[in-house]
Amino acid sequence: MDRRVRTVDIGPISLSITEQQTSSDKSPVLLLHGFPDIGYTWRHQMDAIAGAGHRVIAPDQRGYGWSDAPEAVDAYNIFELVGDFVGLLDVEEINRCILVGHDWGAIIAWHVALMRPDRLAGLALMSVPYQPRSDLSVLDHIRATDPDGPFAYMLAFQEEGTAESLMDADPIEFLRSTHWKQSAAYAATPEQADGVAPTGLPPFLEPADMENYARAFYRSGFRGGVNYYRNFQRNWELTRPWHGAPITVPTTFIGGDHDFVVTRGDGGLGAAVSSMEQHCVDHRGTTIVPGGHWAHQEHPDPVNRALLEFFASVS
Question: Which of 68, 113, 198, 262 is least surrounded, with the fewest CB atoms within 10 Å of its CB?
Answer without folding.
Answer: 198
